[in-house]
Write a structure and sequence with these properties.
Elements (H helix, E strand, L loop, with lengths): L4 H8 L3 H13 L11 H8 L21 H19 L8 H11 L6 H12 L4 H22 L9 E2 L2 E2 L1 H5 L1 H19 L10 H12 L4 H10 L7 H25 L5 H28 L2 H4 L5 H4 L5 H5 L1 H18 L8 H12 L3
Antiparallel strand pairs: 1-2
The chain binds 3-methylbut-3-enyl trihydrogen diphosphate (2 copies) and magnesium ion (MG) (3 copies).
The site of one magnesium ion has 2 residues, from α13.
Length: about 350
Amino acid sequence: MLDWSSQDEACASGSVLLKEIAMRQKSTSKTPGPVKGTDQTSQRAATGAPATTKGGSDASTPGGNGFDVGMFLADSTAAVNEALDRFLPKASVKPATMHKAMRYSLFAGGKRMRPALCLAAAQACGGTFESAMPLACAVECIHTYSLVHDDLPAMDNDDYRRGKLTSHKVFGEGIAVLAGDALLTQAFEIAAQCDGWKRYTHQDIVLEIAKASGSLQLIAGQVADLEGEGKSLSASQLRYIHERKTSALLCCSVRLGGMSANCSPAELEALTRFGYNVGLAFQVIDDILDVTQTSEKLGKTAGKDIKAGKATYPAIVGLERSRKIAEKLTSEAFAALKPFKGRAGALNGLAQFLLQRDR
Ligand code: IPE
Ligand code: IPE
Ligand code: MG
Ligand code: MG
Ligand code: MG
């Protein structure tokens, strides 16, 4: 039996996740303080990141702002990889099997989209890569842990991830479970090393990450995903799954980026809308790619969703309509960027990139 009682309610009232986040916001909002890290020049000097767009950045123009998203991603990925390497215990540190396993999955070649979104959101709010980096690394650790567990035989049972054998195939199931546990815990250790900001304290940051990855959000989505196997679900039930298992962490990533720039409540609200919609589009595209791409291209087994009887957009509404839904969600995300005017080039470019990605 599906444990759907609250989920049907959730589906009926639309974007419940957004409401839950807004309620949390009200209970923790602080007196506005000065914005830290607004010096874009020193940010670029520190990170090598391109902070300007090539040709004016009208955030409401999807992909039409000339922002070099490829360069942004190359820079953010390099900076994130370097920081993760610094934050994680070396592979030789005992228990070496554990640190090898954590690093194996973390450095297997993920797209690093969540940290990129976090850093881009920091930039949109006038912050720095440096200040956002612990949070960007924390969300990547949580994401990687969720993949290690998602691939286990008891879950999606995949032999490949990020173009390599999955953790349990290399290290065995016990170590893979523990590597996931350790990456999840590592995320909080890294996040605790952030500065803390006038509007957003360490407590707010910890709550933000815990809520997004906990039993009401990411885990809730994974539970519903498993319980939905082989069942015929409605489009709104499927949306609930996507909202929780994927959108919650993407939304959290951009919100954390904004928080690291001590963003205003209005900016945080705009980032929430942006992240929520980009997060939903992300999973629709993931479902489409499972049907349309090869395993080689994806670095994970293609065509698995149908075999496992997963509820996906292509299965429920067909490929063509799925693409339209992803496009619609992405335009909702673009619309949310209006308040940022010229500063949202990276967020805008990333949303466009995610819609067009082929892996
Ligand atoms: C895959 O995420 C899992 C989903 C939530 C769909 P990504 O496509 O971001 O995986 P990596 O990080 O690039 O491996
Ligand atoms: C994974 O969704 C979501 C999480 C890990 C939280 P999928 O099961 O669709 O991801 P892939 O296709 O295995 O990457
Ligand atoms: Mg899954
Ligand atoms: Mg999976
Ligand atoms: Mg998938």
